[in-house]
Amino acid sequence: MSYFSTVPQAPPDGILKLSVLSRADSDPSKVDLGVGAYRDDNGKPWVLPVVREAERRLNEDPNYNHEYMGVGGLPALTDGAQQLIFGSNSPAIGQGRVYTIQTISGTGANMVAAVFLKQFKRPADAAVYISKPTWGNHRSIFETAGHEVREYKYCNYKTLTLDIDGMLDDMRSAPEGQIFVLHACAHNPTGIDPTEEQWQQIADVMSERGHFPFFDCAYQGFATGDVDRDAYAIRLFVDRGFELLVAESFAKNMGLYGERTGCLHAVCQSSDVIPQVSSQLNRLSRATISTASAYGAKIAATVLQDPRLYEEWLQSMQDMSQRIKTMRDALRDKLVALGTPGSWDHVSQQIGMFSFTGLSKLQVDTLRNQYHLYMTDDGRISVAGLNSHNIDYVAQSIDAVVR
Ligand code: PLP
């Protein structure tokens, strides 16, 4: 009998399953709105010009080598990433009470945070609360790290808007001192973000109840095209005096999906605890990846540290978010013009890479099987997969299944 015969089958990952199905479909009308990656108007992956320029510089550097990096990662990246998230004039950075460690993109940052919190959370039996719905990997990461995971209300499924009352109620009724996973911007999968006023209410309740915020920031610059606006919630919480953790990813905003470039930031009340916190984060990182990956970090650091490349990068983020916004409006307008039953304003109003369309599982299945249109079972589409060549087909297909 195999040593492994008692290993149970893991449940399939919805997104990965979807990409396998989509890849196997060779129909010319196929549209893949599943994968959360930016595509240009020809449906092709886009390498940002600043990334090409940074790669050229690295390739031409005669001193470039492939040595290990230090355990915390590349300082030019971690410093630049701190400023990007907290602002270049951030008092918390100035006071030396932020520690940043380089991670394996946003997923690695979530995992390091999850393991760190499992070992040091207070109270020790605090649960981790994730939004309903959330990025599929949140539950898996926090459960794998050994936490009890609970959900807080987030989406009003009837109106496809934020259920702010339900969210605040759940935060109020949770025992004191729980860990709340918050999407900093461009909520995945709904595309529904709290307004600035609603973030203030959330901060009020979290402060009253002594909850610990863990911000997952995978889309800074993607939501509004403005990195400062997209960091509003994180900076608000820091200004309010919260201690917190932030997972930051450069996958989407720099298009470094496969390079696995990200950071985990810990904001502490004072610099006194930084030696303890940094030593534990370094230990966890050493135990899991030993040292972070270099190539993507060097690309991202080059962009973050060079004023001209940085400005050009800001423009590229605006271009990406604007194209997505244009596609949102176009899809809404086309559905309205077709007289498709229902209201479609939410498609325009939602933000970031995704739209929660409100299509049912049955409609999603029909779109997949009869129209070669791929989206996740919950009706989420990656708006970045829409373009001027497929938008009419997508609108007509949705119209056909909704009638
Ligand atoms: N967090 C959220 C909410 C996401 O949507 C994603 C990616 O889809 C990630 C984290 C992690 O992405 P990555 O590990 O590619 O940086």
The helical percent reads 40-55%
Query: Which regions are unreliable across 5 or more consecutive residues at pLDDT < 50?
Result: none
Oligomer: single chain
- N-end to C-end Cα span: 54 Å
Structural class call reads alpha/beta
Which overall shape is indicated by the principal axes computed on the Cα atoms? globular
Strand order of the largest sheet: 2-10-9-8-7-3-4
- Biggest sheet descriptor: 7 strands, mixed
- Strand tally: 13
- Nearest-angstrom radius of gyration? 21 Å
GO cellular component, one term: cytosol
EC number: 2.6.1.1
Organism: Coemansia aciculifera
Pfam families: Aminotran_1_2
Word description of this protein:
The chain is α/β, with parallel strands linked by helices. 46% of the residues lie in helices and 14% in strands. The chain has a 7-stranded mixed β-sheet, with helices on both faces. Strands 1-12 form a two-stranded parallel sheet. Strand 3, helix 6 and strand 4 form a beta-alpha-beta unit. Helix 2 packs across helix 12 and helix 3 crosses helix 12. The chain is globular, with a radius of gyration of 21 Å. The mean pLDDT is 97. Pyridoxal-5'-phosphate binds next to helix 5. The site of pyridoxal-5'-phosphate has 12 residues, from helix 5.
